[in-house]
Structures are given as structure tokens and as C-alpha cells.
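All the exercises in this workshop are built on plain-text protein records. The record below serves as our worked example for the rest of this section.
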Amino acid sequence: MSSARAVVLLSGGLDSATTLALAVREGFEVHALTIDYGQRHRMEVDRARALAPSLGARSHRVLHLDMTYPGSSALTDPGIPVPRSRTEAEMGSGIPPTYVPARNTVLLALALSWAETLEARDLFIGVNAVDYSGYPDCRPAFLRAFETLARVSTRAGIEGTAFRIRAPLMDLSKGEIVRKAVELGVDLSVTFSCYDPAPGGTPCGECDACLLRARGFAEAGLEDPG
């Protein structure tokens, strides 16, 4: 078992919560990082605040960052509609309007800054193969490239620290992630996945995130408590 520190990006969703639980199970001293970047589904930030301590994070920071550039993304510009009721084929084709320009590059850079301060070498992110086909910053090639960036752009890297970008869900299906979350004791009723919730926080049930979540629970043979 490791006693090393790790920084985990925690959005408040199913995947990131499961990733945090996996890092804790591996024995890491986990420090969770949540970014409120102006997303229309920012209620996930409140879910992250509840999840971090319940899953065993040693500390949790919420950073506020304005990425609400006009016309940039359906997740940050209320004038751009979030796609609904898309088929699996549509979800797997092209880059969707919910892509936030360079979001994971920015989030991992913030995680890297904190990791260097903490003398942590492991950064965890909850990307997985079901999602990355449409998002360029969720692909394995991006994660490996960021490791190279971390090595050449930090004092720790120059002095020999090999930062590792850990994506333990990368090769799992949504159903496997749900089963893994249950195995790890993640309170799935707290996790939040919807891109376009109603004002009261009710998931829309039709956006890509809702549909993928529903498919995951169906594949796992479980009812979604969220």
C-alpha cells in the first residue's frame, strides 16, 4: 500500500467520485480539487463538497475560475443549447457543443500546481473510453502528453520527479464504473451527472451525460438512486 499523496480532480459526478474512491483504496493520501468554472450544472460543485469527506479525502479545495467565454461551449454559455436525446452513434461522432475549450488542460494544470506544492506525483482524473471519443482532452494521447508537459514545466519535474496522470476508469464501460462505485461504497445518490438540470436541480434525463449514466445503471442491472 502506498502512503504517497495524490491530487484527484473531483467534479461531483459518478466517474470522478469513483476515481477518488479508487485512489483512497490504493492507499494514497488524497487531496481533492474541484473547479467551479462557470458551468451551467454547477450544482455538481455542492455534490463534490459532500463527496470528498465521505470518500476519505484528506482535504478538498474548490477553486473559482471564469471560463464563460461567449460562444465557447453549451456548458458555459446559456445561449447555446445542450444537445438532447442523441443516439449512441451521434454521441460518438464529432466534437459536441458541450466541449469546453481546453478545459482538462486547464484543470490538470491547476491540479499539477497543487501537486507540486504538496510534493505529490500522482494526479487522478476520471476520464473514460465511453466519453473520450468526442472530447480531445479526454484521450490517452492527451494524458501522456500532459505527463511530458509536467516533466518539463515544473521545478519538481526538472529535478527528477516523474508526475503520473492516472485515469483508472479509462478502459471501463459505464456499467463497470457503476459496479465499481458500488463495490467501493460510493453514495451514488450524491453524485450528479446532468449537463442541463432544471432550476431545482432535477436532471433533464435527455442530455448525453444523463443518457450515458442511465445506460451504465442499466448495464449494471441497478436502479439509479440519484
Notes: The chain has a mean pLDDT of 94.
